[in-house]
Each structure stands twice: as structure tokens, then as C-alpha cells.
Amino acid sequence: MSAAKKKVVKVTLVRSKHGRLPRHVACLKGLGLARMNQSVQLQDTPEVRGIINKVSYMVKVEDVA
Questions:
Q1: Domains, the chain, ranges and CATH?
Q2: Which of 15, 54, 5 is nearest to 31 (CA)?
Q3: Which of 2, 23, 32, 41 gives a 20 to 30 Å CA spacing to 51?
Q4: CA distance linking residue 50 with residue 44, whole number of Å
């Protein structure tokens, strides 16, 4: 697959990470999220989707064209 055809998702932290399980905080760090309302664009891979599923109650995910 060429670089132009790779899917991208925009992930935004919408709930605080304070008081969460250490594993979930580590997942947010792995996604590159540190602050509330911070957004990052990541490639849509199975690994990234797995991390997103683990912390889905704290993030908002949007597909980017």
C-alpha cells in the first residue's frame, strides 16, 4: 500500500487521565496524548486500534480523509 492510501485517524483526549489505571495512562502516553483536548493524527493500524479500544472511554476518534 502506498503512503497516500494509508488511513489516518484523529484521536482526541476528552476525559482526564488522573485517577486512571497505570496501564491506561501508559496507553495514552503511547498514543502521544498528554493533555485534555489534545489531538494527534495516527495511522490506522491494528496496533493503534487496540490501544484506542483499551482507552475508548477517554478518547474521541475521527476518520481523516
A1: 3-64 (3.30.1390.20)
A2: 54
A3: 2
A4: 10
CB 14 within 8 A of CB 31: no
Closest by Cα among 36, 26, 22, 28 to 56: 28
Please tell me the distance from the alpha carbon of residue 21 to that of residue 42, in angstroms, as a whole number: 23
- CA–CA separation, 10 and 65 (whole Å): 10
SS3 of 34, please? coil
Q: What is the rounded CA–CA span in Å between residue 16 and residue 2?
A: 36
**Across the 65 residues of the chain, what is the mean pLDDT of every consecutive 10-residue run?**
78 97 98 97 97 98 91
Q: Is the full-model pTM beyond 0.85?
A: yes
Taking the C-alpha atoms of residue 27 and residue 63, their distance in angstroms, rounded to an integer, is 20
